[in-house]
Amino acid sequence: MSDTSTAGGFPYRLIATDLDGTLLRSDESVSQRTRDALASATGAGAAHIVVTGRAVPWTRHILDDLGYEGLAVCGQGAQVYDAGEHRLLTSVTLDRQLAGVALAKIEAEVGPLHLAASRDGLDGDVLVGPGYALTGELPVTPFTDASDLWSAPLNKIYIQHPELSDDELAEAARKAAGGFVTVAMAGEGIVELLPLGLSKATGLSLAARRLGIKAAETIAFGDMPNDIPMFAWAARGVAMANAHEELRAVADEVTSSNEDDGIAVVLERLLS
């Protein structure tokens, strides 16, 4: 690895962190230890970018609570958001015709799906259809008429199956529709259909370019298979102890869990 040290001696110029299961504890808080470690690393000259599958409307309140004013990559790489200015810098939407074909192909293989969708924009609603099981307390808009799903630009579609596991559903969706959409598994009960070729690495590379930082100068933290492209892009990928086995398999290092300050453990070591 080339010398990427910042002026303060920290060995990376960019720290990219996933939110759920990584930076956030199960109660959606960030520990004081992790806040302090990030502050020390940024004080040493590194930038911190949040890279999350959540779209901006589901991310903004967390960033505001953290006092975070940098760039954030949201919507699985679809959106680059300036948290300080509360402004959407870039946004990629899902081709709704291709998405409709993809859904039809997946349902032809596995049967009816439960659906939700994330509308584009700073205030885009998350639409939730009958049978779709939500986790957490995030705001949603129920729908019963399938035409509502397609009435405005979307960043992604969420799919669930009444019997298949998340891994089984993601694999079946890739086999049936991988030529039309990108399929990402982002958490428990969260299998997503995205614009073809989109990943967290797409948005992270755009955000890093705005900061004049290269992949070789980046350390990334994550916990789910949707973080694999980000790990492939960055110089070093660190999986949390609670990470999915697919991510652990490609990580350069496994740290403590999100509940046990896994990010801070690594940053403190690098800072020392």
The order of strands across the largest sheet is 5-4-3-2-1-12-13-14
* CATH superfamily grouping of the largest domain: HAD superfamily/HAD-like
- Mean pLDDT, to the nearest integer, reads 94
C-alpha geometry: globular
Distance between the amino and carboxyl termini: 19 Å
Would you tell me which CATH topology of the largest domain applies? Rossmann fold
Query: Mind telling me which CATH architecture of the largest domain this is?
Result: 3-Layer(aba) Sandwich
Broad CATH class of the largest domain: Alpha Beta
Low-confidence stretches: none
**What's the gyration radius in Å?**
18 Å
Taken as a percent bin, the fraction of beta residues is 15-25%
Number of helices: 8
